[in-house]
Write a structure and sequence with these properties.
- The protein has 388 residues and is an alpha/beta fold.
- 33% of the residues lie in helices and 22% in strands.
- It has 11 helices and 14 strands.
- The strands form 2 sheets. It has a 7-stranded mixed beta sheet with strand order 2-3-1-4-7-6-5. Strands 10-9-8-11-12-14-13 form a 7-stranded mixed beta sheet, covered by helices on one side.
- Helix 10 links the parallel strand 11 and strand 12.
Length: 388
């Protein structure tokens, strides 16, 4: 794939962030961008592929479309996979893994189909060079993604490698960690901009804080990691060095920012400290141990964003039922002029917090369906309104 070829590409993302991802990809130079459920399809040359991997905060990975063909049987799938010139794409010494997802696929065994695609790749190598690549299910150098719907078979080459939410710097994960690209997408949905005060009063491992600091300092999210495209035969090392150098040149020095986080428990706060330190951002963010019910607004206006405990166990649920009305009181009393965003899997949250929801956005934290509830806190009571 030369730097002048417009390849067909697909970037999956957390469901609910498709529009934000599409806008981001367009800013990175992608063309023909369109949203689809769970991601965005687009076109771009090698530069766009490298930049999307290096700079997208919302994509989960960047997949290069190799083909889409009609199929009716396992044999059709094997034949289509075999016809590709795999040795042109990567060296036989690279380890591989095939991933398969399907919707309404009429064929019975997805495990068997995955095996047939792997066989097609290996058989093509064996016929071309006399040997076959090894399969590595844990840390493959080349990842091949297949997607089947009722009639069509699409095959992709993964240009990312590890998922893009793995920024290469997270030191510790909390009990219910928020993926970095979901955190970045929520900051986008919240309309937060660098220079505006940001507070997460239940910050856990600090995902919102790390992402916000990286955005404010213009740190490319992928600057500390490697990518799958580096293992492919057409890897353009000179172009990659140039793009990395451009990203490094835009990076701002670490200074204290109006980004604040707090946690009730010291052990949890240590996770946020560790993650900020691993990302080189410890000086940028102000952390303190505090009760979310007692914390004061650190500025006259700003954005509060948080992912509180969901309380999936019955005892926790009861505790949260007591916590949320008090949290609503604290927001009303201390955060007039702020826009507050709460990510929750508890659809009863608006009833419990007793503040008027101005917007609710469906999102998924992994497989868990959530809502991002927006509350615009104004001086004076917002109670007594229906939560919608």
């Amino acid at each position: 794939m030369s730097p002048h070829t417009n390849a067909k590409l697909f970037a999956p993302c957390p469901r609910g962030l498709e529009n934000a991802l599409a806008a981001e990809l367009a800013e990175l130079g992608a063309s023909a961008v369109r949203t689809v459920a769970g991601g965005a399809a687009f076109e771009g040359d090698t530069r766009v592929i490298y930049r999307a991997n290096l700079e997208s905060r919302i994509a989960t990975r960047v997949l290069l479309c190799l083909f889409t063909v009609a199929y009716r049987s396992e044999e059709d799938i094997y034949r289509a996979g075999y016809e590709l010139d795999w040795p042109q794409r990567f060296d036989v010494a690279r380890s591989i893994r095939v991933y398969l997802t399907a919707q309404r696929c009429p064929l019975k065994s997805l495990d068997f189909l995955t095996l047939r695609i792997k066989d097609a790749v290996c058989d093509r190598f064996r016929s071309a060079v006399g040997s076959r690549p090894n399969v590595d299910t844990r840390a493959p150098e080349v990842r091949i993604h297949a997607f089947l719907d009722a009639t069509q078979f699409t095959l992709y080459l993964d240009t990312s490698g590890e998922p893009l939410f793995k920024r290469g710097a997270r030191a510790a994960r909390g009990e219910a960690p928020l993926k970095e690209n979901l955190a970045a997408g929520i900051l986008k949905l919240a309309g937060w901009r660098p220079g505006t005060a940001l507070l997460d009063p239940m910050c856990g491992g600090g995902a919102f804080l790390v992402e916000a600091a990286q955005i404010a300092l213009d740190i490319a999210p992928g600057i500390a990691r490697s990518f799958g495209f580096e293992k492919l035969n057409d890897f353009d090392a000179a172009l990659w060095r140039k793009l990395r150098a451009e990203a490094e040149a835009r990076r701002k020095p670490v200074v204290p920012l109006p980004i604040y986080g707090s946690e009730l428990y010291g052990d949890t706060l240590k996770l946020a400290h560790a993650n900020l330190h691993a990302a080189g951002l410890a000086e940028a963010v102000q952390l303190k141990q505090a009760n979310a019910l007692e914390i004061s607004a650190p500025a006259k206006t700003g954005v509060l964003v948080t992912n509180p405990p969901y309380g999936e166990r019955m005892g926790e649920r009861q505790g949260l039922a007591e916590f949320y009305p008090r949290f609503g009181d604290a927001l009303k009393q201390k955060f007039a002029g702020w826009n507050c965003y709460i990510l929750s899997a508890d659809m009863n949250l608006p009833k419990l917090i007793k503040l008027q929801v101005s917007k609710r956005t469906p999102l998924y934290n992994g497989a868990l369906e959530c809502r991002l509830f927006e509350y615009k806190i104004v001086a004076g009571s917002m109670r007594g309104h229906k939560s919608g």
